[in-house]
Every structure is written in structure tokens, then in C-alpha cells.
Amino acid sequence: MNTLSLLVFGPALLGLLLLFLPEKFGKAGKSIAFLGAVAFFVIGLQKLWGLRADPSVLAPERFTWFAVAGLPVEYHLALDGLNYWLVLLTLFLVPLTMAATWNSLKQGEGRFNGLFLILSTGMLGALLAQDLLFFYLFWEAMLIPMYFMIGVWGGDDRRYAANKFFLFTLSGSLLWLVALLMVAGKAGSFNPTLMATAAAAMPFGTQCWLFLAFAVAFAIKVPLFPLHTWLPDAHTQAPTAGSAILAGVLLKLGGYGLLKFAIPIFPAAAQHYAKPMALLAVIAIIYGALVAMVQRDIKKLVAYSSVSHMGFVVLGIASFTVVGTQGAMLQMLNHGISTGALFLLVGMIYDRAHTRMIADFGGVAVKMPVFTAFFFIVTLSSIGLPLTNGFVGEFWILNGAFTSGFQWGRLYACLATFGVVLGAAYMLWMFKRVFWGAENPDPESGTHHLHDDLNLREIAVMLPLIGLIFWMGLRPGTFVAASEASVTALLKEVQAPAPNMITLAPAAAAPAHGTEAPTPEAGHVEEHR
Amino acid sequence: MTYAWLIPVLPLLGFLVNLLVGKKVGKGFVTAVAVGSVTLSFILAVRLFLAMKGADGHRLDLAYFTWMQTGALTVPFGFTVDPLSGTMMLVITGIGLLIHLYSVGYMHEEEGYYRYFAYLNLFVFFMLTLVLGDSLVLMFVGWEGVGLCSYLLIGYYFETDYAPDAGLKAFLTNRVGDLGVAIGMMALFAAFGTLTVSGILTQAGHLAPEVGFGFLTFATLMLFVGATGKSAQLPLYLWLPDAMAGPTPVSALIHAATMVTSGIYLICRLAPVFQLTPTTLTVVAWVGGLTALFAATIGLFQRDIKKVLAYSTVSQLGFMFLGLGATGFAAGFFHVFTHAWFKALLFLGAGSVIHALHHQQDLFKMGGLKSKTPVTFWTMLIATFAIMGLPPFSGFFSKDEILYLAYLKSPLLWVIGVVAACCTSFYMWRLMALTFWGEPRDHHAYDHAHESPKTMTVPLMVLAVGSALFGFWGVPEAFGGHFAIGEWLKPALTFGQLHGEHGHHAGPAIALAATSTVLGVIFGLFGWFKYKDGLAWEEGFIAKFPAVHRVLLNKYYVDEAVELTILGPLRWFGNVCWKLFDVILIDGVGVNLPAALTKVAGDFVALFQTGRVRNYVFTMGLGVAALLYMLLK
């Protein structure tokens, strides 16, 4: 079997087997799932690591599979600059999450992990699929295992959250399916390149509507304000593993879909809507942070912080600059690592204290120093401290937005920086209330129920995440080398406006240098404040 | 120069080692690692400094690797050693080493000894990164990193209520300023296409100064916003007095000698760019002058010895900005340099007093310590002479240079500066008199008071020598010198460009200096006379002007105003966003209402699915009748 097909369908085959395993073999099922996930990660790493400079050299797996209404659907899996690191991230996070939540579930462990493997097929398939209908199948396939993971193993309000997650996402993607079929019908294919040509021939108004249908489906997944309200519920109700993988990978598919399909197929419409997209992104950044600031449940706080952080991704994409888009690519990985880690850490303390309310804690640093240290480092990454990964992504996005060819870029970049301030506010305020101060005096408090610090398994799970946080912060080039060429080509292809740099007035005596014209007005470049 | 990278990395290693194993291996090991790493770092820094001094153009560029590279944005990871960064590097490692030594004595009973030294080492690493970084982004690494260490060290006593609050306040206030730095960096990148210091400065040399408010003025003003955060200027000074919650040596190193001067350093580093924006410089001068005065008035009646020194620091930092704004970059930096010595000394002296009195910080409970702690007394006396600007102590020369330039900028700024200096003399002598003169007001503490151990007093003595002598580095022309520090810094501050410093030839230099010095001495003596015998004068003042005293003691109620006008509304708005927008509007009206309507519609239709045949027959009959009616009509 070919590598990509194995990586995509292997987990689902194993997962399906586990679903039929009797309940009494749950523990064994969990182990099998974990070993399988580790095996897929090792295979993936071994086969793909060498391709990180240029992933497109790997031969795609491609043949015509079946036809829908006379339109051929291609089985087309391929690695490219945009999906390379997201694929590795997925392969990495699945076994890690399983290990982190090893003892979190009370029942049905085998089946849960089976569903988890099926979910990873959905994610990897969606990332690797190059044919739009093929992509759509995986995209929808991701919903089903996640629906059961939340609905069966979730918290008290799990059914509401699971239904909301499912219907919210589905309603977006059905609209998108209609648009997809319309363009594919014109193009006679689900191939994105052919669809782009067909779309370009349509009237601009039609292109705009079709783009919106695409964009809304992806924006729900991101999730972009005001389509985000399914996320806090899903995150809070999902079991730890579900939350971690939801934040770690699923949300990324929204940003990925925008870059991979929506923008290349409708370049003109995408740029037409760049401003409202960026505006919603800026609102999401600030709004998510403000709402996170007043949360009482740590997990919900982290969920709203996702809204804020993913807003940065959309802002970077909407800037239509290489720096901003590369920042968005990096930010997706960062968010996968940092927020995934935060959810795992919240799960670890919840398993011990059986509460997640901030007010139930206080003085945890004394009880669990190792846990505190890990939580603090991840917090630093989340608030974008330099030398951690969070800084590089946000810095690039802000720089990209500031130099965006669109006139609103500078103002929006300045506004988005407020999100960075608020980000530090909600994270460190929460950190102070949970970890610092005297031990919570209430005998029923969460702190009181904390007895053991992290065990070796939990430390082993956290160490690679911490390592990545600093690796990505110090050598971000490793993680964006693959996408640099793709992003540059994409922006050239869609004819994005050139970055908007400032020219300043040269001194009268000194000879002019560079390319700027020595006009007196040049010193007073218009302010967009 | 292959060893240069070790200068910041050694303290970083010290941090890692102590944090990972320090708790288990004992205090001796922790001390060896922490003090040892900074000592080595200091020795290498001296070597590097000498190498720089011998190098062509007094400048060494050390490139390591490309940190970021995407699109048009390239950020190298490298260091620049020139007179500006080299001098700072020596101050950081030198005074840092003294404070490490002092801490060995001061902190020896602490359970978190390893944690304290780990953070202190980490601070040295980040501070060196800030100073040596050859790009604004790398400087920003240090900039935020020192903020992190400051946060951790302010919150060192994390089991208390006040320390975590103070740490959080420091970090967040600094973040507000960092927003300015971030925007300033983006703006400079848009204008220059690079973020390396040398790249920006080279291009800046070819530009015309901006009249009014142009793009560069916007950029430099934003950077100045960052400087007001880190260097505790109006309106972002609020965190620094609270930062005294940290251990006293931390206040000396971070919140007096080094970190808080980063804002001045940043502006000096980009001096040629700030030269192009006179509007910004005017803002800098006025903010600095007003902060100097404002903080000095708050310092007049504080009771906590560390709080007096904290407001004094805010005030002195204001003087430095006043100097920068008056286009005296060298003068501002000169004051950074002298202040590092005498303010570190004052804080360490205060720490020695606190140590002697078993954690007593209230001036009203001290008194008469002169004979009990002679070394502390004499060294602090030298520092007091320096800060009040008594010739020939170091503070005289640096403050005088600033006041002189302020006069050239605007005589009103000079007046503000002199009034602030008079307040400084007064509160310093009040502090000295209440601590060392008069009758002990807490006999129990007094009886147990003792001079600190050698590891604490030796650093005091070294700092005292610096406080007394280092002013001679900048004797101005009016006094027969040639302002040597200005010459020394010139290559860094002008970057070989034409527009340089102010000419030092105009104005009545000697008369100005004499006026401010005499006034300072008068106010100092006044403070000493009124307080050397106890609290009677202050009690009389309180009785006469209760409102003035209350307003000053409560720091003009600025903290309360911020809570009321900014923090409160922000939380309120967060709640509105959550409960109104998210829960009611988006989720309620947008999501759950359609869902509920669907359910209602479903339930309504379900009413007709009764399962009884006669109902179906009846409905069918109605339907048939309706059809027939329509067909036959």
C-alpha cells in the first residue's frame, strides 16, 4: 500500500475493528489503538521527514474513483507545502493525546479510541485530498466520530453540545456543497484548478456568492466571529482528548480550506471580501479575549482564547501578503501545540480535582510544582512571549497585516495588537488565581483534592510539546520552509496587491537612495489611524 | 570574539541548572552556579569590551544565525557591541554580580533560594539580550523577557496576596507599553524594510527631519509608549511602586539599576531616528519632566522606605527622559549610568536596614541606626549626596547636564526639573534622618539591630565608590572638562551621521548649576532639620494640611481612577460580550431560536399524526372535498 493511503485509511480500519470489540476488552483496545497511532506516527515521520524542504516531490496517489452526475471524482492524495506540517501535527497529536488521557475515561475506552482513530482518518484525508469532492467526503466524515465522542463521553450537557456542533457545522457545509456542485458542473470536474478556470468565467456577482458559501463553511470551522458559539460548548463538554484534538487539528482545517480552496478558486471575490474578513478577524481577536477574561471555567476560558488566536490566522490570510500568510500557517501549528497542550493540562487537573472552576483553586503551585511549571511555559507560549512559538506567528501576522496592500491593513494591525495585551491579561489573571496565593481554605475546594503532582506518563507527554514550543520559537524556518514557495506562488497566482511600504522624504543634501521619489509630501504619508 | 555568545548564555545555563536541580542539591551549589555564571560572564564582558574598544570604529558585529526569514522579512540573530551596548553590558554584569553577592547574604534564610537565583540569572540573560541584540526583534526578546523575570521576581512570595497582584500589574502594564513597541516595530519595518538596528540607522541618515506629525513621528511615538511602560513614566508608571513587593535586591537590580532604564536605552539605540522627529522629542521631554516632578511629590510623605525609593526611581527616570527629549542622548544615558550606581546602592542600603530590623520597612518605626549599622549609613550617605546632586558626587554632573539642556529647550522645563530636584533632596534627607538619626522609635527592633554580613556590605562599599567617582566621566566644558562620555558614545548615538548632539556653548551654564545646587542643598538641610529629631514636624504638617498629605500619601488616587475608568468597564464589557452577544443574541436568537421554532413546527405537525384511522379518514375527506371544490369551480 502507498504511504499516504496507508496513513489515511490505516487508522480507520483499525478503529472500525475496535468499535466491535466487546466492552470487557476496553483496556486492550485502548492499548491497541495507542500502539497503532504510534506506528502511524513513526511511519509518517520516517517517510515524510526527509521531504520537509519540498514536500511536493512525493508522488501523488491519483486515479479516477467514481462519478457523480457525470462528474468524475478523483481519488487524489498528495502532499504539498500547505498540508505538510499539518499532516505531521495530526500524526503527532493523536498518540500524544491518547497517552495524555490514558486514565481519563471510566468506560468504553476501546470504542472511544477506535472513534479517535476514525477521526484521524477524516482529518488526514481532508488535509491530503486534492479533489474537492474527495475533500468534502472527509470533511463531513470528521463530524461523525467527533459527534459521538462528545455526545457519549462528554460532560453533563453533552447532548446539546454534540447536536450543536454537528448541526452548526453541517448547515454551513451543505450550503457549501451546493456552491461546490455549481462550480464543478461548469468545470466538468472537481479538480480545483479546473474549477478556478470555470469560476473565473462566471459573472463577478456570482463568484462573490459562491465564494461566500465556501468561506462561511470554513469560517464556521475556524471558528470566526460571529459563527463561533458552537466552539465553547463543544470544548467544554467534550472529554479532554476531544477538546485537545478539536483545538489541535480540526479548527485548522478551516484556515487550511480558505487557503487551499476558497482563495485559489475565487481569487477576485476573496480579495473583494478581504476587508470584511479581516474586520471579523480583528473583532474575533478582541471579542474572544474579552469574553475569555470574564470566564469562570478554565476550560471555557481556553476555548474562548481559541477564538481569539484563530482570529489571528484569518487576519494573516486576509492580509494577502507572504509574511502574513506564512504567519497564519505558523500560527495554526502554534495553536495546535499550545492550545492542545492547555486542554491536556486542564484535563490533568480536572482528573484530580473534578472541577475546573477558577474559584475552586488557589495555591496550586505549592501542591503541584511540576504541573505549575508546565502550565506556565504553555501560558507563555499562548500569550506570545518571544522565544516561544506564539510570538513568531503573531508577529508575522501583525507585520503582514500592517504592510498589507489593502489600505485598512495598518489600522487593523494596530487594533489587533490589543488582543495581545488582553491575551496576557486573561491568561495571567487566571494563572494568578489558580496557581498563586495561599491554598484555597475551603475543605471542598479543588486545590484540597490535589495530592499527586504529574506522574511520569504525564511528564513524558508534556516534554515534547514544551520542546516544540521553543524549537518553533527559535527556528521557525524549519516549520514554514515547506509552505514558503506554495504561499508565494499562491499570492502571485491570485494577483495579490504588492505590500504597502512607506517611502520617506530624503534629506535635501544627501543623494536620494533606493527607489522612492524625493517629493516633499512623501514625508507625510497618509495615516490610517 | 568566539566567546561573546557565552556572556548571555552562561547565566541562562545557570538558570536552567538551578531551576532543575537547585531544590535538591542545597544552597552552596546554587550559590556557586548562580554567582559563578555571572562572574564568568562579567570577566568575558570585560574582555569583549576591551576588544570592542580596540576595534575599528569601536564596533563589533557578531552574527549567529537567521532567526526568521519569510517574504520580505529577515531577522538575523546576532549581537552588536559598541560604546552604548558595551557600557550597558558592563553595568549589567558588574552591578548584577554585586547584587548576586549581596543576595547570598540577604536571601540565605529563604526556602525558595534556588528559585530566586534561577530567576535572577534568567534576568541577566534577557537583559544582556536586550542590550546586545542587533535587531529590534531581538531587543524585543530581551524587552519582554526582562518583563517576565520582573513578574516572576515581584511575585517571588507567591503565597501571599499582595505579591501576585503586584506581579500581574507589572506584567500587564508593561504589555500595554509593549503594544507600542510592537506597533513601532511594524511601522519601522514598513518604512525601512528591515528591523536590524544598523539597517535602520544607515537609512535614517539619508532622511530629512519630519516637521509636524509624519509617519516616522508616529513610529517613534509608539516606541516611546513602550518606553513609558518599561521605564515607568506617566501614565504607565503605576506598576513600579507596587513592584517593591519583590525581594529588595531585585528592586535594586531590576527596578532601579537596569531593567527600568531599558526605555532610555531603546531611544538611545535609535537616536538617529528620534533625531528626525522633533515632535516626538518634545513629547519625550515634557513627559519626562512632568513625571520627574509628579513622582517626586508623591515621594515626599511615603512611610515605606522602599516606596520612597521607588517613587524616587520613577522621578529619576523622568530626568533621563527629559535629557533625551532635550536632544541630549548622551546626557540621558550618562544619568542612566550614574543612577545605576547610586540607586542600586540606596536600595541595597535600604535592604541592609530592613535586614537589620528584621523585615521592618516603615520609616516611622526606625531611627537612630547610625551607630548600629555604620557601613550602611556611610555608604547610603554617599548615595544621598549623589542623588541630590552635590558636587563632586556622580549625580551632580549627570543631573546638571540634563537640567542645562532642559533650559536650552525651554526654561519652564528647567524650572520643573529644579523643583523636582528640590523635592528629591527633601525626601532623601527625610529618609536618612528618619532612619539613622534621632531616637529609635521601635526599641525592640533597635536592640536587635546589627550590621549586615560582609557579603552584603562589600557590595555596598564598591557601589559607594562608583557613586562618588563616576561623575568625572562627564565633566562638562563649563567646569573645565570635555564631557568625555559624550565623545565616547558619539559613534553609537550618531551612527556616523551628520546631525549630532547639541552644541555645548550657549546659556549661563555655571549660574544654572549653582542655582539648582544651592536650592537642592537648602531643601536637603530643611528635610534633615525637620526630621532628625522625630516625627513632630510631619505630624504638625498633617494637622495643618490634612488634604494635601492624604492626596500625596494616596498617590493622587490614580490607581483607584484606573480601576474605575478602565479595568472596571473592560470587565463589564467582557461580560456584556459574553452574556448579551454570545448567549442571548448569537446563541439565543441566532442558533437556539431557529432550533426551537423547528421543534415547535415539528410538534405542531405531529399533532396530526394521531395514529387513529378515523382522524385520517376525516382529514382525507376534507382534502378530497377541497380538491373537488377547486376542480369543479
| Distance between the ends of chain A | 57 Å
What structural category arises from helix and sheet content of chain B? mainly alpha
Read across the widest sheet of chain A, the strand sequence of neighbours is 1-2
Assign an overall shape of chain A: globular
Could you tell me the radius of gyration of chain A in angstroms?
A: 23 Å
Helix/strand-derived category of chain A reads mainly alpha
Distance between the termini of chain B: 106 Å
Low-confidence stretches of chain B: none
Number of helices of chain B: 26
Rg of chain B, Å, rounded: 31 Å
Average of pLDDT of chain A: 89
SSE sequence of chain A, one letter per element:
HHEEHHHHHHHHHHHHHHHHHHHH
Spatial arrangement of strands, main beta sheet of chain B: 1-2
Proportion in β-strands of chain B: under 5%
Shape of chain B: globular
Quaternary status: heterodimer
State the helicity of chain B in percent bands. Answer: over 70%
Average residue-wise pLDDT of chain B: 90
Helix content range of the residues of chain A, please?
55-70%
Walkthrough of the structure:
The complex is a heterodimer of chains A (529) and B (633). Helix content of chain A is 68%, strand content 3%. With 529 residues, chain A is mainly alpha-helical. Chain A has two domains: 1-266, no CATH class; 273-501 and 515-529, no CATH class. Chain A has a two-stranded antiparallel ribbon with strand order 1-2. In chain A, strand 1 and strand 2 form a beta hairpin. In chain A, helix 2 (26-48) runs parallel beside helix 4 (109-128) and helix 6 packs antiparallel against helix 7 (158-187). Chain B has 633 residues and is mainly alpha-helical. Chain B has a domain at 578-632. Helix content of chain B is 73%, strand content 3%. Chain B has helices spanning 6-25, 27-54, 83-106, 113-132, 136-154, 162-192, 197-204, 215-230, 239-242, 248-257, 262-269, 271-275, 278-299, 305-325, 329-356, 374-388, 394-409, 411-436, 443-448, 454-469, 484-494, 509-531, 536-544, 546-553, 558-606, 613-632; strands at residues 60-70, 73-81. Chain B has a two-stranded antiparallel sheet with strand order 1-2. In chain B, strand 1 (60-70) and strand 2 form a beta hairpin. Chain B starts with 5 loop residues before the first helix and ends with a helix. At the A-B interface, helix 7, helix 14, helix 16, helix 19 and helix 20 of A face strand 1, helix 5, helix 6, helix 8 and helix 25 of B.
